């Protein structure tokens, strides 16, 4: 099969979509070396993976489908939930989540992504990053028979917790669906926790609420906000965490939680969306109703001070979440196409 891949996201900064795209490319390149697929990456600028450069203007709706037709490609693979409006070559999108459709109250401007999601759901074949996203699309009538790629951990974390200055980590953009103000409130209720809560992620719609929640704490220095880290700094931050917390109200996948779980880091996660689905069998107290600040405080106390819980959480996480095999992901994608 001859596949043309929309590689523009590889030109951008760090993001979950970029991580998934890079993984797909790695898997497809491996299949290409084995002669199982003919794979071409199209971009606007130059990247280490670029095979074909196309004009930026009307890239999705003109440049990409025309290049696919002229190059006699069998499929266009788009690592996002969008496709060309018109194309003689069948397009295959990758769906990440539909939180903006299910919980629009938690997201900022949703019209554009809702429109492209509904457009791409008409594709004959579609992939999803998780079984949860595939199931929800089916249940909401957006699309049946979405093929889950079953992505697990993406980045390998060498867990060596900082014993001198312990901290609990949360990787999350400051957006409403990440539920950070409730997390900060719950952390403040711990009192002298003996550790710091580190929130790592870009600013966003909820930044003001986050700042206000921190300012109300008896000890605002108990929460540290980190952003703009380079790859090495980010890796060190993940490696040194005593524990991990993800109180999100909606996640289609949540790569940071998968990465930390695969490393055996003990954690507390919300029982909503993909987190609830992936960690349903976790030890009691790990997968909770994160809208309840008191329940979250109790879970965080266990995460910090209950050695038995930490050991059980660590063992469960490392056995239930594995590093993603991108060759198998690519092979599944090709089989679906």
Query: Looking at the chains present, what oligomeric state does this protein adopt?
Result: single chain
Class by SSE composition: alpha/beta
CATH second-level architecture of the largest domain = 3-Layer(aba) Sandwich
Strand content: 15-25%
The number of distinct helices, counting runs of at least 4 residues, comes to 13
Largest sheet: 7 strands, parallel
Shape, per Cα inertia axes: elongated
CATH homologous superfamily classification of the largest domain: Glycogen Phosphorylase B
* Main β-sheet, spatial strand arrangement: 3-2-1-4-5-6-7
State the helical fraction: 25-40%
Q: In terms of per-residue confidence, which ranges show pLDDT below 50 for 5 or more consecutive residues?
A: none
Number of domains: 2
| Radius of gyration computed on alpha carbons | 21 Å
Order of helices and strands: EHEEHEEHHEHEEHEHEHEHEHEHHH
Look at the structure and give the CATH class of the largest domain: Alpha Beta
CATH topology of the largest domain: Rossmann fold
Number of strands: 13
InterPro entries: Glyco_trans_1
Keywords: Transferase
Protein name: Glycosyltransferase
GO molecular function, one term: glycosyltransferase activity
């Amino acid at each position: 099969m001859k596949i043309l891949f929309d590689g523009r996201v590889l030109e951008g900064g760090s993001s979950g979509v970029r991580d998934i795209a890079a993984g797909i490319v790695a898997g497809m390149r491996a299949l290409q070396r084995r002669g199982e697929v003919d794979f071409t990456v199209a971009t606007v600028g130059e990247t280490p993976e670029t095979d074909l450069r196309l004009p930026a203007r009307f890239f999705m709706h003109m440049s990409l489908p025309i290049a696919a037709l002229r190059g006699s490609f069998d499929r266009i693979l788009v690592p996002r939930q969008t496709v060309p409006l018109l194309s003689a070559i069948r397009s295959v999108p990758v769906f990440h989540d539909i939180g903006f459709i299910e919980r629009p109250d938690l997201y900022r401007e949703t019209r554009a992504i809702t429109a492209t999601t509904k457009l791409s759901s008409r594709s004959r074949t579609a992939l999803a990053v998780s079984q949860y996203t595939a199931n929800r699309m089916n249940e909401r009538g957006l699309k049946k028979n979405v093929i889950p790629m079953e992505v697990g951990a993406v980045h390998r974390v060498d867990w060596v917790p900082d014993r001198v200055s312990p901290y609990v980590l949360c990787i999350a953009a400051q957006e409403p669906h990440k539920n950070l103000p409730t997390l900060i409130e719950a952390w403040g209720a711990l009192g002298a926790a003996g550790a710091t809560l580190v929130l790592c992620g870009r600013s966003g719609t909820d930044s003001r609420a986050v700042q206000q929640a921190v300012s109300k704490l008896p000890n605002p220095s108990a929460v540290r906000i980190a952003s703009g880290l380079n790859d090495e700094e980010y890796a060190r931050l993940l490696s040194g965490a005593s524990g991990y917390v993800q109180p999100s109200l909606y996640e289609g996948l949540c790569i940071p939680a998968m990465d930390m779980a695969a490393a055996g880091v003990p954690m507390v996660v919300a029982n909503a969306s993909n987190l609830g689905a992936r960690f349903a069998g976790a030890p009691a107290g790990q997968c909770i109703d994160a809208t309840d600040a008191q329940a979250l405080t109790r879970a965080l106390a266990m995460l910090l001070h209950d050695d038995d819980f930490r050991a059980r959480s660590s063992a469960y996480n490392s056995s239930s979440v594995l590093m993603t095999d991108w060759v198998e992901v690519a092979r599944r994608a090709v089989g679906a196409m």
